Amino acid sequence: MMTHMRTVVAILVLSSATTAAAEEREMCVKNAKWRGPAIDLDVKAADIHDVYRLLSDTGRVNIVIPDDVKAKVTLRLKRVPWQQVACTIAAVHKLTITIDGNVLMVSRRQAAPAR
User: pTM for this structure?
Assistant: First the structure.
């Protein structure tokens, strides 16, 4: 009976881990269709944290950026969807944006393993 109970608990833990992993996805994929509101943005040498906070307000999403991500951003954009702005900044600064529900997690792009 106890072995059966451990098996059930293990299956539940594994299935919830699989579900959680399936919910996370990369925001900046090739040929993405941008659906969010378009914005005009004109900033010079703005802190990347502040720009992403502005984009999170526009997109009505939560955002998490670690303190070790440091950069200045200069942009002059007209009528560009906020997600495209976020992904463009990420590409220029070698960052990745992962979506988990309504939370955007910005982080440094992992280096590809050496061959």
Answer: 0.73
